[in-house]
Amino acid sequence: MSTPVSSRRRAMLLGTTLVVASALLLTGCGRSADDGAPSGDAATIDAEPATGTLDVWTQGADGAKLPEMFEEFKKDNPDVTIKMTEVPESEFQSKLTAAITAGTTPDLLYAFTETQSALIATGGFDAVPDGLVDSADFYESIWNNSVVDDVAYGVPWYAYANVFMYRKDLVEAAGAEVPKDWEGVVEFAEKLKADGVEYPLSLSANYDQYTAQQLAVIAAQNGGAMISDDLQTWTIDSPENVEALEFWAGLMKDGYASQDGPAFLDTVPWMTQGKNAAIWDGGPWFASWFDDANGEGWGAEHIGYALNPLGPTGDSGSSMGGGSWMVPSDSANKDAAWKFTRWMSEPAQQVQWYKIFKNMPAVKAAWDDPALTGDLLDVVRESLESGVNRPAVSTWTQVGNMIGQQMEKVVRGGVSAKDALADAQKQAEQIGTGH
Questions:
Q1: Across all residues in the chain, what is the average pLDDT?
Q2: Is residue 318 classed exposed, middle or buried when 0-12, 13-18 and 19+ CB atoms within 10 A define those classes?
Q3: What is the pLDDT of residue 434?
Q4: Which of 326, 7, 315 is nearest to 159 (CA)?
Q5: Which long-range contacts (C-beta less than 8 Å, at least 24 apart) are formed by 171-175?
Q6: What does the buried/exposed string (b/e) look like for 253-262 if buried means 16 or more CB atoms within 10 Å of the residue's CB?
Q7: d(Cα 219, Cα 238) in Å, to the nearest integer?
Q8: Are 308 and 318 in contact (CB under 8 A)?
Q9: How do strand 201-202 and strand 278-282 relate by DSSP bridges?
């Protein structure tokens, strides 16, 4: 199978920072914190066909294929006209925040997991109407990504979860076993290192918010979390998180992972060359990238997939992401917008979109379709059950980048994990959660 490059390319853009700044600005002036903010008592959407003009904004490669879904929707909704505007991905956030300020928004858009919290913080989006969909139909991790104060502002469109990827040939040659837990990770790394693999493990050595997200995943495997369940209090320096950072940094200090990479785009060449033997919490898009770099079938021959290792407490955890449909409060045709959103959430449409674009379903039932089977897909499906969200607050980009910098001090500067996270906790408390 293949997974679109756009999913991870978004994670490399700086647009999230812009959204956060814009969200805070909009909360402070122009649209007030309460202006347009729904209470959650949204009107229901009837079962009649959609009508009128539906203005949809798209971004990234996903948008180019969406007209195929529009045509299907119009078969049962012949009186709706869909106008799609493709906005360059690098400009999407700035154009959208400007449109929210001016009250000139589209009727419908999709937002990626990285930016939803900041967008919701603008107060410019309606709550999901009562009864539109059943939240229990979706994976909890992707549904909760757009929930604030128990109110859902987005309906998941697609979802993915990261997995443990490894070089089957190198693991076999070293006589190693794919690790099932942290103890197994060390044994795995020792055997691969002894067999000549320079850095058995590929960890996120970017020292930014994505490095912090990997720590959040490993912390979850140890029973920890970066923020309280109600998203009000940072818990960065908890004992569970400190233990997780000690373990993560220890893998680098012991030479099982490099302190200097691979940088994101170097991951495929490092694995291809055998410089790494495994990626911990690797995105499913790498599956297609291996074939792009080495020829069709290379990945099937060389790469295996497994669940991320369990922590000492027996907990699991994987990074997750995806996209959700959101309706601006200034939408001129909310009825059609929510009807299209509901239609896209049906299992048949979820499967069809996977066939068209290879984005994986956010709806659990869609995964029962025969099209959604295979070594990687089976592991992703199970991993979605233990997806770990980025803290769903508008300040996470700033806080996450700061945590990443503190992690680098532990690896390079001799700072203890306890002291680094204590410092991160103090800074995060000063930054706040954006509520």
A1: 91
A2: buried
A3: 87
A4: 7
A5: 171/277, 171/278, 171/304, 174/277
A6: eeebbbeebb
A7: 10
A8: yes
A9: parallel
